[in-house]
From TrEMBL:
SUPFAM superfamilies: N-terminal nucleophile aminohydrolases (Ntn hydrolases). GO terms for cellular component: cytoplasm; proteasome core complex, alpha-subunit complex. It is found in: Cytoplasm. It comes from Ostreobium quekettii. Keywords: Cytoplasm, Proteasome. The lineage of its organism: Eukaryota, Viridiplantae, Chlorophyta, core chlorophytes, Ulvophyceae. Transmembrane segments: none annotated. This is Uncharacterized protein.
């Protein structure tokens, strides 16, 4: 399954540069991170993640593993729950990337420092609703089908359109690709048309049974 991080996009001020408030970011060529929670805390953890990935390349001459980075960040989060003079990180993260064998991996970390591996997951506000949708509709897909599944899950809780949705695809060969507003709007339109067609077919079938 192609890793497809997607988030509910917060509205920004008219004069604000939207690139400075992204919640899906690269930490290495083959790993990206999405977060829910305090942006200031996330920036600290993202910087630590990038330094860890760079250090791994320099010292071991190989990229950091997705699971190794997850354990490292979860360890930092856990440490801040029991150290004096500090507070826990106010974020949950989804860490997405590819293992050395090309297998896509997804891990989730919590402010407590716990982490776990997932096939698909959601964090933040309304995450329960999104996760329930994924549990019902998840199948092993790739490419555009995976993007549409992530978008359908997000549409369970947000208004449709590029103003409220940010989608990205983590590709094995080319890395993180954030979809443009036009691409998001086109996908939303396609999904809505599919829903309308399915509803029309359902009603037609119901009427045929009645007659």
């Amino acid at each position: 399954m192609t890793p497809t991080p997607s988030i509910e996009k917060k509205s920004t001020a008219k004069l604000q540069d939207a690139r400075t408030v992204r919640k899906i970011v690269n930490v290495d060529d083959h790993i990206c991170l999405a977060f829910a929670g305090l942006t200031a805390d996330a920036r600290v953890l993202i910087n630590k993640a990038r330094v860890h990935c760079q250090s791994t390349r320099l010292s071991l001459d190989q990229p950091a593993s997705v699971e190794g980075l997850t354990k490292y960040l979860a360890g930092i989060q856990q440490k801040f729950t029991q150290s004096s003079g500090v507070r826990p990180f106010g974020i949950s993260t989804l860490i997405v990337g590819y293992a050395t064998n090309g297998e896509p991996r997804l891990f989730q970390t919590e402010p407590s420092g716990t982490y776990s591996s997932w096939k698909a997951s959601a964090i933040g506000r309304n995450s329960k609703t999104v996760r329930e949708f994924l549990e019902k509709h998840y199948t092993e897909t790739s490419g555009q089908d995976t993007v549409k599944l992530a978008l359908k899950a997000l549409l369970e809780t947000v208004e449709p359109g590029s103003k409220t949705i940010e989608l990205a695809v983590m590709e094995k060969d080319t890395g993180l690709r954030v979809l443009t507003d036009e691409q998001v709007d086109a996908l939303v339109k396609e999904i809505e048309e599919e829903k309308a067609a399915a509803e029309a077919a359902r009603r037609g079938g119901a009427q045929a049974r009645q007659t």
